[in-house]
Write a structure and sequence with these properties.
Helix content is 28%, strand content 21%. It is an alpha/beta fold.
């Protein structure tokens, strides 16, 4: 069933490879950690909402014996190349830049803000009022900021807490930040290293991780037929094999011959791949907690991006933009649900809205065009609109098993896995590992890969 959704109004942030034993990558990092022994591991809390940032800082402070550094992002009309920094209090700073630029300036492990403060990011929390759900979530400024921090090599949790109605905002934040504390406590205790030091910041280039990653292309994990293997792998020069500095003079195994036994690829094997990827910042998680969330019952759900997108975001104005009202026989009247509602009730027929079925309209229009006599129309004769007006448009959603939109609408906190790099990138996880993220731990609903060894 299609559902018309009215979301809360967010406060937007302003604008071929050899397979090798994983211990070698760890050895490179061990040397790096010794060189940086004088630095301390810290939480980074990054947000454009100062009140929410401080609520998050209080929530995570109990999860690890680590420093908490708050960075507030503020909109700027200045040059993108220049980001001004201001001190806001003990371990609190403001960066006058878009969220994405501020994330880079804060998290860069060489000359970034935390590096200058003598701190390394054990875990970053990017907090936002935006509803980061479904495909629509990929367009949010907070999602881009979280991905920038992850590219810098720091593990990330994106915490989304859209504003609700009918509640005191401060009390609402404190309650929902308990969900953040629960997730972060699991990650700190069971996934991140015991000393809370980042494992991949600055990022290591060699060797590529191959457990359930695209870097395993050409192995039994991601097999190729002979013709495709010849095309993809035959002319790749193995630069790493000759790079004695990065490999310590050790030999390499040809990528195409690297295999993993299918008997090893158990659910726990994939969960270990998820833990590796989170520690390496090759994936991050989004925690979207609705205003109706309460710390009781089944609190969380392990999710994937739901079916949730926008249409009719553009209106034309001017000479060529005049629109005539045409009776639409194809649209449907759909139930509406407000994501900012403090009630977790499912959408029903009350306050239903009419939603155009654009795909049906296009099919009918194409068929009508075929039956009409073709005429040549000069593009110069077409009256152009003088301007286009962008809006939030109409947001529509459809039911999707374990979708983050569906879970959020039912009043539970959604824990969704997001990849740092695009599909096909050497560090991107394979689908089979991503599916394992949906396996939940009873009774909380948190992903099983975040659990301790006894529960795995």
């Amino acid at each position: 069933m299609w559902i018309a959704v009215s979301p809360s109004t967010p406060r937007a942030l302003t604008p071929s490879t050899p397979a090798r034993a994983p211990c070698r990558r760890g050895a490179v990092r061990a040397i790096r950690n010794v060189a940086r022994a004088s630095t301390s591991s810290s939480f980074l809390v990054l947000s454009d909402d100062e009140s929410l940032a401080h609520s998050c800082a209080r929530a995570v402070k109990t999860s690890a014996d680590a420093r908490v550094i708050i960075v507030i992002t503020e909109s700027s009309t200045e040059s993108r190349e220049t980001v001004r920094v201001e001190r806001r209090g003990p371990d609190a700073y403001a960066l006058v830049a878009s969220g994405e630029d501020a994330a880079t300036c804060a998290a860069d492990p060489t000359e970034g803000l935390l590096a200058k403060l003598g701190a390394r990011i054990g875990l970053a929390i990017v907090a936002t009022r935006e509803a980061c759900l479904g495909e629509d979530g990929e367009t949010k400024a907070a999602m881009r900021a979280a991905r920038r921090v992850a590219v810098c090599g720091a593990p990330v949790v994106l915490f989304s807490a859209p504003r609700g109605s009918g509640k005191r905002e401060g009390a609402d934040d404190e309650m929902r930040c308990e969900s953040l504390n629960s997730l972060v406590s699991e990650l700190v205790s069971n996934v991140l290293p015991g000393d809370f030091t980042p494992q991949n910041s600055p990022r290591s280039h060699f060797p590529f991780p191959t457990r359930s990653r695209w870097a395993a292309l050409g192995t039994t994990q991601l097999a190729l037929d002979d013709d495709l293997a010849e095309q993809v792998l035959s002319d790749v020069e193995d630069f790493a094999a000759a790079d004695c500095w990065s490999l310590g003079g050790l030999g390499t195994t040809p990528h195409a011959r690297s295999t993993s036994s299918s008997a090893e690829e158990t659910p726990n094997w994939y969960r270990e791949a998820l833990r590796d990827a989170f520690r390496e910042a090759d994936v991050f998680v989004t925690l979207c907690t609705p205003p109706s969330w309460e710390n009781s019952g089944k609190l969380f759900a392990s999710t994937r991006p739901g079916v949730f997108w926008r249409q009719q975001q553009v209106s034309a104005r001017g000479d060529g933009g005049a629109q005539t009202t045409v009776r639409d026989p194809f649209g449907r009247t759909l139930p509406m649900q407000n994501l900012s509602s403090s009630s977790p009730t499912r959408a029903d027929e009350s306050n239903a809205r009419f939603v155009r079925q654009l795909a049906t309209e296009r099919v009918i229009a194409d068929r009508c065009a075929i039956t009409n006599i073709a005429t040549d129309v000069d593009a110069e004769d077409i009256a152009l609109p003088s301007e286009f007006v962008l809006s939030r448009g109409v947001v529509v959603a459809d039911d999707s098993p374990s979708g983050d939109v569906d879970v959020f609408a039912r009043g539970r906190a959604s824990v969704c896995l997001r990849q740092t790099f695009p599909c096909g990138h050497a560090f991107a996880l394979l689908d089979r590992a991503c599916v394992e993220h949906l396996r939940e731990r009873s009774p909380t609903g948190l992903p099983l890969w975040t659990a301790d060894a006894a529960a795995r």
